[in-house]
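Technical note accompanying the year-one report. For the benefit of new consortium partners, we illustrate the data format agreed upon in the data management plan: each record pairs a sequence with a structure-token string. No post-processing was applied to the example shown here.
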Amino acid sequence: SSGKPFVCGDGRIGFVVEDCASACCVSNLVKGVALLGTNLLEGHIQELTKYEKVFVALDKDATDKAIQMVRVLSGYVPTRLAILATDLKNLERKTRDEFITKYITR
């Protein structure tokens, strides 16, 4: 455990997720940043400060942690919460893309 996130994709918008599969699923539209869990580490913060904007999109059962992450990250980079009803990797691509686009175009 290096304390560094798994990163997949390109762009200046980071979408923080829990796992590698979710990071890869969103990488066609944004840079997927997998925490490899639900804890925000210093290495994660260092990576996320490179982006113009960050969205925290943890699984529904980790919403409280996601809210806390938004509070912490907002001190470094513009950050918003993306509330999930279903894990991103379990959505159909079209539905997932519409969900992400809704957030990044606001």
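Partners are asked to follow this layout when depositing records. The beta strands are 6-8, 13-17, 31-34, 53-56, 79-81.
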